[in-house]
């Protein structure tokens, strides 16, 4: 029995407002133009713009199935696995570590796997499974946004407000893109921005 030719894992990362979903949508649409059979998924925690599509901040959309966890994603893929060639997953930072072996299984089955997500949290820590997926990927595209403070290229997501919960789904008004110089990852009990000092 012949082994299928290995597929590819492409990971698209960056801060909020950097165009990750837009780039994912662009690649999925190009695959459709090439007559490849495409499916796309997103976590059901992220329903900011559309329930049955992934959507960029600039309003581009692509049909997607919402899933509550990786097990539901696996179940949704199973009946159509032989027919599909490209699998897209948006906002993968909200999924658990089991997305990693599933992505590699799909690659070994010859699928092209496109995964988009935040690589760091609002406190500048690695976010969920994304860093491991980046390490395993055939290609990593790290996008930057525009710093809302100074206009420089932005690689960080600045949370506005005092919440310290890891997941607070939102967009403009709750988050801003910031460059390294303007990013403030730590907030004191009064809500004032604080810099972590490397040397006390």
List keywords for this structure.
Rossmann fold, 14 strands, disordered C terminus, 200 residues, 4 helices, single chain, alpha/beta
Secondary structure: elements and pairs:
Elements: E1 8-13, H1 20-33, E2 38-43, E3 53-55, E4 61-63, E5 65-67, H2 70-77, E6 86-89, H3 99-108, E7 112-117, H4 130-136, E8 139-142, E9 145-146, E10 153-154, E11 156-159, E12 175-178, E13 186-187, E14 193-194
Parallel strand pairs: 1-7, 1-8, 2-5, 2-6, 6-7
Antiparallel strand pairs: 3-4, 9-10, 11-12, 13-14
CATH fold annotation of one domain: Rossmann fold
Overall pLDDT metric: 85
Shape: elongated
Give the C-level CATH assignment of one domain.
Alpha Beta
Largest sheet: 6 strands, parallel
- The appropriate CATH architecture of one domain is 3-Layer(aba) Sandwich
**Unreliable segments (pLDDT under 50, ≥5 consecutive)?**
187-200
Q: Could you say which structural class the secondary elements and strand pairing correspond to?
A: alpha/beta
CA-based gyration radius:
18 Å
Percentage of β-strand residues: 25-35%
Structure annotation, total helices: 4
Instruction: Give the termini separation.
Output: 63 Å
């Amino acid at each position: 029995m012949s082994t299928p030719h290995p597929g590819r894992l492409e990971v698209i990362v960056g801060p909020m407002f950097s165009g990750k979903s837009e780039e994912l949508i662009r690649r999925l649409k190009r695959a459709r133009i090439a007559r490849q059979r495409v499916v796309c998924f997103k976590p059901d925690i992220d329903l900011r713009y559309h329930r049955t599509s992934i959507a960029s901040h600039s309003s581009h959309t692509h049909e997607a199935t919402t899933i509550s966890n990786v097990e539901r994603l696996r179940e949704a893929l199973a009946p159509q696995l032989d027919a599909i060639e490209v699998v897209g997953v948006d906002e993968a930072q909200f999924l658990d570590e089991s997305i990693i072996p599933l992505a590699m299984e799909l690659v070994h089955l010859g699928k092209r796997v496109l995964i988009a997500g935040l690589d760091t949290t609002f406190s500048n820590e690695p976010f969920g499974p994304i860093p491991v997926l980046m390490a395993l990927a055939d290609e990593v595209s790290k996008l930057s946004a525009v710093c809302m403070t100074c206009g420089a290229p932005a690689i960080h997501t600045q949370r506005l407000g005092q919440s310290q919960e890891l997941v607070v789904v939102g967009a403009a008004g709750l988050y801003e893109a910031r460059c390294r110089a303007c990013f403030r990852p730590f907030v004191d009990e009064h809500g004032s921005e604080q810099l972590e000092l490397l040397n006390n």
